[in-house]
Amino acid sequence: MNFNFNHFNEKVWEIYSEGCEPYPSLSNVQTRAKIIVQNYRMDMPQGTPVEISSLVAKCWAKDPADRPTFAKINEELKEFAETEVTTETTSSERE
What we know:
This protein is mostly helical. Helices cover 60% and strands 0% of the residues.
């Protein structure tokens, strides 16, 4: 299965930037050129959990063999979600 890491990373970025466009001043062609030719990687928005930033960085690996599979991404996201739910529940119970 061919998985588009650029789209995944952009969607994650949009979620944590609260809906902002990742490349507002660039056309699609300019964006692709910047990513492919200049190896540009956008910084994750402030407040993005470290676990999510780390996962996105793995997806940006230059060598495709170093990128996680979609199954691995899914597994890491589930683990993160479970941790977040547990943390939220524990915090709510203390109040």
